[in-house]
Design a protein that fits this description.
Strand order of the largest sheet: 1-9-8-3-4-7
Shape: elongated
Helix content: under 10%
Number of domains: 1
Structural class: mainly beta
Number of strands: 9
Radius of gyration: 15 Å
Distance between the termini: 27 Å
Number of helices: 0
Order of helices and strands: EEEEEEEEE
């Protein structure tokens, strides 16, 4: 299934930010590809604030042979810390001879 998951772990930078990414298994003829992704982490150790990163500019590395998407500069609220977070993603695209297709996924990711 296209866009069925995130990479299993994301590196946290020195500013508490991440760059969500994952596989994207599409065909060379697919077009109008849009990827949206959100990663959130509930702060149970202090104020209960949620840190979230959401879609910014999506980069398709070595597309289509790389089959990888990355959100290089997501809009981020708060700072992420090591541990578990929740990732939600959505990919929409058009395939020849079919209506636009949509896939949605939601999973736990590790932040390191």
């Amino acid at each position: 299934m296209p866009g069925s998951n995130f990479d299993p772990a994301f590196q946290i930078d020195s500013n508490g930010r991440i760059a969500p990414k994952g596989p994207l298994d599409l065909q060379n003829t697919d077009k109008n590809i849009q990827v949206y992704a959100w990663v959130s982490q509930y702060d149970t150790w202090s104020s209960g604030v949620v840190s979230a990163a959401c879609s910014g500019e999506v980069n398709y590395s070595n597309w289509p042979s790389g089959n990888q998407w990355t959100i290089n500069s997501p809009k981020t609220y708060g700072s992420f810390v090591r541990g578990k977070a929740r990732g939600t993603g959505l990919v929409m695209y058009e395939r020849a001879g079919k209506y636009p297709l949509v896939y949605w996924w939601n999973e736990t990711v590790d932040l390191t």
